[in-house]
Known about the structure:
With 385 residues, the protein is α/β, with parallel strands linked by helices. The protein contains twelve helices and 13 strands. The chain has helices spanning 3-21, 53-63, 74-77, 105-116, 147-160, 165-169, 200-217, 232-242, 260-276, 308-324, 326-329, 370-382; strands at 38-42, 67-73, 95-97, 100-102, 120-126, 180-183, 222-228, 250-253, 284-289, 331-336, 340-341, 356-357, 367-368. The longest helix has 19 residues, at 3-21. The radius of gyration is 24 Å and the shape is globular. 43% of the residues are buried.
Amino acid sequence: MPRSVTLSLRITLLVVAAALLAPAAAPAAPRLAPEGFMGTMADGPLTGDDVDLGREVGLMRSCGVESLRIVIYWEDLQPYASMADIPQDRRGDFREVEGVPTAFAATDRIVAAAAAVGLRVMPVILRAPAWDREVPSNQASPPRGDAAYARFLRTLIGRYGPRGSLWAERPGQTATPIRTWQVWNEPNIDRYWSSPTPFGPRYAKLLRAANTAIHAADPGATVVMAGFANDSWNAMTAAYRAGVRGHFDRAAVHPFSGRLANVLKILRLNRQVMRRNGDGKVPIVVSELTWPSAKGKTKNTIGFETTPAGQAVRLRRAYLALLRERRALGLQTVMWYTWLSADRDSPNSFSWSGLRRLGPLATDPPVSKPAYGAYCAIARRVQGR
């Protein structure tokens, strides 16, 4: 055998032997929850021009965030009922869609940024424009009817859904269509739904119209009912009595409490209501959960303020408990409120809820709080990495 062949054979044998002797690569740990379970809210300072949005969504992705809840205020995108109503100097901001002038720019920015890193977005759609409110002077008023809200949902799907114009207009943009839509926020609270008591019949009527419009525009979409807060199990009961069953694909709860035991109790009570109404297998989205690090920072308290270190501890304990109870409660996603907060100059404790906070000066980049590290550690565990 030629010397070169002998040498080649020896090298091959050595490589094979080394491979056999090398320790086997550790198998990837299994996921602890379906993809999308680890979520957060994107609102407030994050949407401002002073924040590097691309950097923040990149941090979300690397941290382990898989789903993002954003707010779409209907009144911001369609403040005018017709093109004739728009001041001349603002007409360039709008395009006419189904006869209604619509300004997409601000929402395009957050949706495109999230899509670029593959984050799934769930918008919550609320706040009717003055021209379609039951009480025009009341920002929390329900819509005057259902048709305009349903039309707006079609407009949003036409922009951000599977065949959305946003993706067609930006061929270089990573397309991550929005397939999940949440219909309003906390309609059992006057702050978001200022209507005569009970809220149920009017909200149920809007939800039915929204469900029909969303599934007609995107048959594969998921409709999420509004998240209820406070005595949410009673609100859930009222919603079922008003006829919401069959008009949503996911329920939602905001189980705010100072004690983790009560968070779990609130979710169990809501699940019991759903079972009694034949929806025991319909998943629940926790579309808001938080403990603000606002202890000693504001005079207006909500009863569960804590320190930055305490916020991290509570976040960790809550996510671990919810993971243990995930199957029993039928949890699909848990959204932390919120990703970025100001942590200053506000009477509202929720302004200290972020995993990250604004820097001391407007020119300073945001900084992470202890809760950020706790969230990332849980997310890595959930994802088996």
